[in-house]
Amino acid sequence: MKTRKTTPAAPPEPAETVLSLSVQYNVAEQVRLPRWRLRRWVAQALAALEGPAGASFTLRLVGAAEGRRLNRDFRERDYATNVLTFEYGADPAGTVHGDIVICVPVLVREAKEQKKPFLNHAAHLVIHATLHALGYDHLDPEQEAEMEALEIEILARMAIPDPYQVS
């Protein structure tokens, strides 16, 4: 009787996260930041992680007045900040929910001040916010190092230089 050698089956590949992304424009940035580009950046962040089964995010691009109002109302800081993330956790099916707000005038100003291409800085902020929506934070040095390393890795996959390198 012959015995057949069998090779153990490889573990299954992790399932790709199903992404539902709503993009809202309260500023005229559809040309530089079209939905497909924003979706690609969020998807890159999700693909880099063994993430949730699903992600449902709203990404809103706003002007300085709305950015300031939201930062004041929700963080008690009376200035427009570059990005705000509202993390709502996962539903029973495992889909993570969150809202991301990018203040475009602050994004433009920071890109100029830091001498970074607009799209590179925008990609960084979207990825940073997506990680927040997935539960990552930078409240202590260990968390900050982990989050920054992930951002650098994800951006490198997109051929975007390390945003934390000082030139």
Order of helices and strands: EHEHEEHHH
**Subunit arrangement of the protein:** single chain
Strand content: 15-25%
Question: Which superfamily, in CATH terms, is the homologous superfamily?
Answer: Metalloproteases ("zincins"), catalytic domain
Q: Sheet bearing the most strands, described? A: 4 strands, mixed
**Low confidence ranges:** 2-7, 10-14
Which structural class do the helices and strands define?
A: alpha/beta
Round the mean pLDDT to the nearest integer and report it: 90
Number of strands: 4
Radius of gyration over C-alpha positions, nearest whole angstrom: 19 Å
Distance between the termini: 70 Å
Describe this structure in words.
This protein is an alpha/beta fold and 167 residues long. The protein has a single domain, classed as Collagenase (Catalytic Domain), CATH 3.40.390. The chain is 41% helix and 20% strand. The chain contains 5 helices and 4 strands. It has helices spanning 35-47, 64-75, 104-113, 118-133, 141-157, and strands at residues 18-25, 54-62, 83-90, 95-103. A 4-stranded mixed β-sheet has the order 1-2-4-3, sandwiched between helices. A hairpin with a 4-residue loop joins strand 3 (83-90) and strand 4 (95-103). It starts with 17 loop residues before the first strand and ends in a 10-residue tail after the last helix.
